């Protein structure tokens, strides 16, 4: 069964290699002289005195490089980049910040201040490119209630990422307490023409959750935030200054669809769910598997997602007797932190499968396309029908590791981790389940 694990690893790495952000940027943005063609719209660069760039997220460097290739050699721009890694080749005119993720750091705060300073005095002669990708919520942050400190902001984010809330729920609260999220960067850019380009790690149709929607109208309202606070008993976990601000009903609504700042704003999805499924599906079929894609488990609790996807895999195997089959799933499962161990939702998903696949000719891989899984240095993990026996043979208990949120330690001992380092991308998590006949 080691072959099945290796096969799953190969499919994951081939999928990552097929996602090329600069090439996608050049394909979807075309320049003819001074005219920029984007999603059926034409922007004449001669009409603008200032070109500004705000790049936030794990794919920020690749997106900036892609934009530079589109505009070169005639156009130079100024801007701000906040990413979790340093650029390989900094571009002139750009200010770079090593923001924190998943918890904002001082550079996340400084990046937000730099972005607001960049956008100040933008007018109708200004064209702003907003390059957005996953992780932006932590990599750029500044509280709306200015009495809050960086430590307060870090406490807020820690409370959110460990409570079990969905991305939509977490970002609804983030938007309402932030000076740079939930459409507020669009407000800050005033009368400028705004072009937002996105590499998304959120479900289709929910793009305003990407990086907490800094340039898009926010469909959520304060009443929804109140419901989230109650649902996860979050209020007592928030900083006292923020708790007082919320309880005093000072939280304003975020900018909605009818706000004038969106009159000259445009949004283009560069890469999304299909751009992850297509290369994964191709890689699976090239290995001789009957393949099926399933994204129905997005935001499901990790145990329920594991049970459902394994059931789908068994159905696929029954429908294709004598054939090796593979189920490909994307999205993010919900995996609340229950202990003080090391790991994330991807390794937790694989761990939730270990007992279910014991003794079967099945391999399960789950990994983040950004190369990061929770608080671990891995992207995820891979296991097969022999993993449970191997773990118990060296005194490890998968059920106990799951309860302590310590999947990384178990899979590290078994040499079943997926380690890539930061990939410079962030579409979604990818799960690959393979079964022999």
Secondary structure layout plus pairing:
Layout: H1 2-18, H2 21-28, E1 29-32, E2 35-38, E3 41-44, E4 50-56, H3 60-71, E5 78-83, E6 94-98, H4 106-119, E7 126-133, H5 136-139, H6 150-161, H7 167-177, H8 184-188, E8 193-199, H9 222-231, H10 240-247, E9 265-271, H11 273-286, E10 290-294, H12 302-319, E11 325-330, H13 345-354, E12 362-368, E13 380-384, H14 387-393, H15 398-403, H16 407-413, E14 417-418, E15 429-435
Parallel strand pairs: 4-5, 4-7, 5-6, 7-8, 8-9, 10-11
Antiparallel strand pairs: 1-2, 2-3, 11-15, 12-13, 12-15, 13-14
Helix pairs in contact: 1-11, 2-3, 7-9, 12-13
Structural key phrases:
437 residues; 6-stranded parallel β-sheet; 6-stranded mixed β-sheet; 19% strand; globular
Measured between the Cα atoms of the first and last residue, the distance is: 12 Å
**Poorly predicted parts:** none
Helix/sheet category: alpha/beta
Beta-strand percent range: 15-25%
Percent of residues in helices: 25-40%
C-alpha Rg, in Å? 22 Å
Strand order, main sheet: write it out.
6-5-4-7-8-9
Q: What is the number of helical segments per DSSP (H or I, 4+ residues)?
A: 16
Major beta-sheet overview: 6 strands, parallel
What do the pLDDT scores average to?
93
Total beta strand runs: 15
Specify the overall morphology: globular
